[in-house]
Amino acid sequence: MKSDGHSGMGIRNINNSKSVNFRFVLAVLDYSGGGASVGIHASTDKVYRSGLTTDKFLQSLGFRPSRGCQFFGDRCYYREIGIVPAGQPSPELRSEFQAIQASFTRFSENIEALFHHRQSETQLLDQMGRGVQFNNQPIFDSPIEIIFDPSSVPLWVEEVKMVRLKELESQQADIEREIEELSAYLPLLYASSDDLTQAVLKSLRLLDLEASETEVGFTVDVLAHSQNEAMRFGFEVTGTKGPISKKSNKLTQVVEFERIKEDSEKTILLANTFNETPISERLEKESFTQDAVDFLSAFPVLMMTGWNLYRIVEDIMMAKIKPEVVIGRLHSEAGVLVYD
Q1: What's the confidence (pLDDT) of residue 323?
Q2: Does 223 share its domain with 124?
Q3: Within this chain, do residues 96 and 216 fall inside the same structural domain, yes or no?
């Protein structure tokens, strides 16, 4: 049975937030027989005469009207998000509960944007003659059962941790963040499709270029430019198990970009060739066949590989080359990039 969020032995305010239209409280309700319920209490005082109103919006998210709320009186809407079985410790004292608090924070930080998005959606539907519709679109799954690991460290231990332990944990967190940051460049070596494109975007931004992904169907995948916009680029990004040959449709795409581009834009075909082959083996292979190179020689197109860009990224991080030098080369050179 779902909890009403109010009928129990006692209720505790764990966290709260306030936005333009809404107020929220994350609370734990203890039961006399043991166990607890974790939920969000919501309230709104804003009145909208038409379209999607705040109360209907909350109900569409799965919040139910509730009376006699300790926090909001009879103006409460409640949504249970977690259940703590009897015999478990108080949830807010355990580290596992931090994920729930983080979820609550993300929810409250983005609720206004979601509300205005759905308001706009209903207004557009009304203008299209479909009438205002309020479809339920809950953003929380069914309440999860919260089971705590007896060996996990309670949060209150944080207050008395040894100084050296805190230092090591901080170093560990920094190392993990750096590992995650650097690992984001690895798709340049093996990926195709979106993972490769995201790694290319990240690399170009490291070069101090403003880079963005284009809409689906555009002739190239990424548009980029220097900070002063003096140098502009169009990157066609692809991953393949073999080389780029004259038969590849990527040649057609870059030639089409050459036709429609502005005069200052540099066309670059960035291909993660032989992306299932170890680097030591692919170094001896030609990433662009001679017939492909001959075909593109009529155009000022630069051809480079994911391995090229990966090495450039590492050299910049090691301060072996400056980003502006790389940008200058990419903009001025044509043919197959030679990067030693």
Answers
A1: 96
A2: no
A3: no
State whether 122 and 202 are in the same domain. Answer: no
**C-alpha pair distances (Å), 54 with each of 46, 73, 121, 302:** 7, 17, 14, 54
Helix (H) or strand (E) holding 37: strand 36-43
Closest CA to 81 of 24, 12, 143: 143
Determine the residue type at 275.
N
Give the largest CA-CA distance in the chain: 81
Using an 8 Å Cβ cutoff, are 242 and 273 in contact? yes
Can you read off the two tokens belonging to residue 32? 């006399």
The residues that bridge with 229 in the sheet, in sequence order, are: none
Amino acid at site 297:
S
Q: Give per-residue pLDDT as tens, 202-243.
A: 999 999 999 999 998 899 999 999 999 899 999 999 999 999
Asked if 203 and 106 sit in the same domain, the reply is no
Counting the structural domains of the chain, the total is: 2
Cα distance between residue 245 and residue 268, in whole Å: 16
User: pLDDT digits over 116-146, tens only?
Assistant: 888 888 777 777 765 555 556 666 777 767 6
DSSP state letters, 97-137: GHHHHHHHHHHHHHHHHHHHHHHHHHHHHHHTTS-------
- Per the structure, the complete domain to which residue 266 belongs is given by 187-336
- Phi then psi for 144, rounded to 5 degrees? -90, 150
Count the alpha carbons within 13 Å of 205 in the hemisphere toward its beta carbon. Answer: 11
